[in-house]
Amino acid sequence: MQLDQATVEQLREWEAELAGQYQTIVAKQLNLDVTRGKPSAEQLSLSDTLDGFLEGNYQTDNGTDTRNYGGIDGIAEAKRLGSDLMGVPASHILVGGNASLTLMYQTVLTAYQFGLTGPESAWKNIDKPKVICPVPGYDRHFTVCEQLGIEMITAPMTATGPDMDAVEALIKADSSIRGMWCVPKYSNPTGVVYSDETVDRIAQLGNIAHADFRVFWDNAYAVHDLNSDAPQLASVFDACAKHGTDNTVIQFASTSKITHAGAGVAFMAASDANLAGIKKFLGAATIGPDKVNQLRHAHFLPNRDVLMSHMQKHAELLQPRFDAVLTALDSAFTGTGLGSWETPQGGYFVSFDTRPGCAKETVRLAAEAGVKLTPAGATFPYGQDPNDCNIRIAPSVPSVDEVVGAMEVFVTCVKLASVRQALSKQ
């Protein structure tokens, strides 16, 4: 199906054929959801032995009773787990509750309202602080900025990470830029892993940006490979040390897609100065995190070998679902010009770009046919995709058969939206 070379008669024939296929699908009254990247029930069950894992022993190695108050930055055993997960020395890690998003929000709030390195460093001291958002990107990052009134400016994603020429140009041209969001491994939603060069250039941003500039490095998929030869992410911690920019990058991760998503452990890795700033905020906001949950996670995942063996079980459940998505896309769209996509080797998403102007219509058609997709535009700040083309597919929760069914609907909707758009231009 080559729309740009088709006659009006061909387009009408294709539209009639696809409309018939679409009505057949609608009649099935499907109810499928591929909107959010949550672990499936099968994945969650891999960690059910967490329940009762401590067998009544709530003491840490140094004698701390985890049932009590205190320990605002987490217990040593959990910091060791964070070190295994993030590849950062345990001395630079703070451990929180179940959600890294909470730590990210608290860190951005601290930077904006109070300053990470004192009141004079607070972003609110300038008229319009701005944050760079590589796009397409993660909608929850955008929500944090939008709620705090921080202006978002975009930089395009490439196959190697953010377009660093564009990022560096933005920073050099505007001293009010105070931050940047990054999902460096299996980026949400494109699945891209940042190249070594990109990581190194991000580490150097502190040498050209304002002193209060921070990169929020959301490494949510640090160990979420689908296969053993998946690409590895260079250490931004080491790169910052090399370039003398230790304060520039603040890293985040969690066990939320490793154990129980609703009862995980979140981690933050940062310089001593940044840790001091966030601990000052936390000292006013909380008496301490759930140390019991931290301890049971530390015992459940006692070293990196156990962690990676556990993640292999996740991969075995996720791989067939990703295969179902990618097989459908390859079969339907390779060589047609109707869409483009990455082939991720890990993470939780497949990002698909329709022809410009077709994403919203594709999502609408799919919804009417019983398949819920992430709203078109959600992967851009303020929900505004200027080309109306990006759609995020999240195949983790449905069964493999349900993913196959959802993709049948998706393919039909993309084709129908594309043909109707082409007809409207005749």
From TrEMBL:
Top-level division of the source organism's lineage: Bacteria
Is Nucleotide-binding there in the keyword field? no
The UniProt keywords, alphabetically, are: Aminotransferase, Transferase
Q: Which Pfam families match?
A: Asp_aminotransf (PF12897)
Task: Name the InterPro entries on file.
Answer: AspAT_Ic (IPR024551), PyrdxlP-dep_Trfase (IPR015424), PyrdxlP-dep_Trfase_major (IPR015421), PyrdxlP-dep_Trfase_small (IPR015422)
* Transferase among keywords: yes
Protein name as it appears in the record: Aminotransferase class I/II-fold pyridoxal phosphate-dependent enzyme
Tell me which species this is from.
Answer: Gilvimarinus japonicus
